[in-house]
Amino acid sequence: MASLSTASIARIAASSRSTAIARTAAPRIASLALINNRIIALQRSSSSLATSKEQQAIQRIAEKRQEAFLGGGEKRIAAQHAKGKLTARERIELLLDIGSFREYDAFVEHQCVDFGMDESHITGDGVVTGYGTINGRLVYVFSQDFTAYGGSLSKMHAQKICKIMDQAVLVGAPVIGLNDSGGARIQEGVDSLAGYADIFQRNVDASGVVPQISVIMGPCAGGAVYSPALTDFTLMVRDTSYLFVTGPDVIKAVTHEEVTQEDLGGAKPHTTKSGVAHLAFDNDVEALAKVRQFVDFLPLSNRHEVPVRPTADPIDRVDPVLDTIVPADSTKAYDMKEVISRICDDGEFFEVMPDYAKNMVIGFSRLDGQTVGIIANQPLVSSGVLDINSSVKAARFVRFLDAFNIPILTFVDVPGFLPGVQQEHGGIIKHGAKLLYAYAEATTPKITVITRKAYGGAYDVMSSKHLKGDMNYSWPTGEIAVMGAKGAVEIIFRHAKDKSQAEAEYIAKFANPLPAAQRGFVDDILLPSTTRETIIRDLKMLKSKDRKPPTKKHGNIPL
User: How high does pLDDT run on average in the chain?
Assistant: First the structure.
């Protein structure tokens, strides 16, 4: 029996657009030889054992373990590679530190006897589960095996997943699911549906307790989609993964619409239109390398401290470019991502949902080595205005950060909420209130920097002092007012002959940070180049913050 090939995996890695990712994956690709060696060793040991009763038992166990390593068999493994996809075990080996994976339930098989299933048994039952480490930190993982029953979910398959989820919550460690499944195992009927519900319940129980990450690396359809939807982050692989409740055939039969799997539920529509997925990658190797980088930002659970990574970036580093980065003309745009990268450690910013609601930027970075979550309006896109999609995008992220006590750093340049019939009828009131609720409810450290515009209700919503912001700052370019000067002048001075003078008067009186500072609504007006040092000192001061929410079962966020 042939061993697993690493040649196709190397080809997938080489196809990545990032040479850094290919280099990072190289040692893990080499480590897959360990699997080959284990299979070969099992083959040799099973063939060399004698025929005593004890040795026969050992031989049977060795054969079963060998079967578990090969999943659905060599032909199906070859077919998986031909699609540009890795197997379940190869994915785990690339995701985890070399040699750290400890497998659970390798010998589990389904218990179904209907429709000929009693004559078909694949050891492991289509999913590989266990724990290991990523950069030395504990994580739990399940990886669905498409080579075994198409990765379909049975009662025992679900039981394996539930077991590692329960233990992850018990010890406090993230759960990473590598999804590649054809859906429910039809032969098992309601047992399969019960298995999904058991997983959903654990997704909810684990929410806010341990980080949950779903990586869609193949099909995920029907009821199966709701587990990734309940997790904190959903990542996809372009061209080989898709998510939808009802497939193209059903849609064609019911609505007579014709659509491909990729256009309906591929990575592009879900990262740009629906917002269901947070990130998309070119292939399995790139996706797994990015997951390793991503997990480094996250605490192991809500009981653990936010991770800190040593950095050589000085706390008091001054960046003079920030003093002139905001244009003097308030109608001109600038890139908020450049502001973020210039303030944070080593210019590193791990953006989440970069292709959805681009007028809002969210992601992770570090300040003095400590993880922070960043929410920022993006003036380059629709002037950074708040709309339905950007409000929902930011609100969910704020709630994740608060659940795990990750400090929230907000950069504000917002002209208000997007006007329009479509927005009003689409529920901008309700969806905008989600972001307001998320910020108001958050008890994690909250630091806000107004870089330019902070107009109207959007000023209140974007982590203002009134929503119990801990430290609120403005740059000298800040404009904190009910609305822009031109709009205000049209209302206040609508009968005035010289409106340009009236506009200048309004700007001098309201469209600057001084009125807010005089009322204590901003704690200080910062020279932009000193922002980094100020924020880092505040984070240290706020480390012992202990604000408890009012006693209640839970609030009623406007969903």
Answer: 90
